[in-house]
Specification:
Chain A has 86 residues and is mainly alpha-helical. Chain A is built from three helices and no strands. Chain B is elongated, with a radius of gyration of 20 Å. The chains are: A mainly alpha (86), B mainly alpha (181).
Chain lengths: 86, 181
């Protein structure tokens, strides 16, 4: 990465992190929130939030398999990266 | 293969992920943010003061992050499906699978979070069961409508890029057939 690219990333990072840090530095409220969020129940709540998405992902994969053409109709391109053959 | 496109699954799986993602955004924007209902931990930690609101906001943000991920994955799969000549480019199949994705997400999320674990409800307070059941019913309706559309779309076999309309011969031009193979 050239020098200008690095400066751009530093600027973008500063813009992203700066305003929240100024709005709420390490204040008592932020500390309480961080402690609560990262408490004992963190993993339980994380799993609870992720499970519906995992189930939808599994459903999506299942429907992909169900929609595959029968073997005799399948083309050599099935399972091949698109654009691999030109 | 161009006039016998049969791999509907590629389009359906992309649509289901995209539908779950876009449905999650609709949920997050309308229910969480505009109406201030349906916060992730609202039963455990009612968002009635600053700290509990910020904690709920964190978990809502994580929900939005996963929603964004599902949308990106769905978009990637849709892009990939569009490059394959054996995938029929059917509007009915795509719209139907979007509806299935949104509805299935509502059903899964509603059954687990509202009814099984009870960590939050659509609209906490009086009549919350009715709102939760309405949420499930809306999800089931979306899945039903989506399923009907996907079934109707099974008749569509036109791959992406083939001409549409009364003047269309139903086949690709010779040059395009070469490209599609």
């Amino acid at each position: 990465m050239d020098r200008h690219g690095a400066q751009l990333w530093v600027l973008l990072g500063g813009l992203l992190v700066g305003p929240p840090a100024v709005a709420c530095p390490d204040c008592p409220t932020a500390r309480v929130v961080r402690t609560s969020v990262l408490g004992d129940d963190f993993w339980t709540y994380l799993v609870t939030a992720v499970v519906p998405f995992l189930l939808i992902g599994a459903l999506s994969a299942l429907l992909y398999r169900i929609g595959l053409p029968p073997r005799e109709v399948a083309t050599p391109r099935d399972g091949e990266e698109p654009g691999a053959r030109t | 293969m161009a006039d016998g496109a049969r791999h509907h699954g590629a389009l359906i799986s992309a649509g289901v992920l995209l539908g779950a993602g876009l449905g999650g955004f609709a949920d997050g924007i309308l229910l969480h943010q505009i109406l201030q209902w349906h916060s992730m931990l609202s039963t455990q930690l009612p968002p009635t003061e600053l700290v509990s609101m910020k904690i709920n906001m964190f978990w809502d943000g994580l929900f939005h992050a996963f929603t964004w991920l599902a949308t990106v994955l769905g978009l990637g799969l849709l892009w990939r499906a569009g490059q394959r000549p054996e995938v029929p480019w059917s509007t009915r199949t795509l719209v139907g699978s979007l509806a299935i994705g949104w509805g299935a997400f509502n059903l899964v999320e509603g059954l687990i979070d509202h009814h099984l674990l009870g960590i939050h409800h659509v609209r906490p307070g009086e009549g919350q069961l009715a709102w939760d059941l309405g949420f499930l019913a809306f999800g089931a309706l979306l899945v039903g409508v989506g399923w009907g559309l996907v079934r109707a779309g099974r008749r569509d076999t036109r791959p992406r890029g083939m001409a549409v309309g009364p003047g269309a011969p139903g086949r690709l031009a010779p040059g395009l057939q070469q490209v599609s193979r």
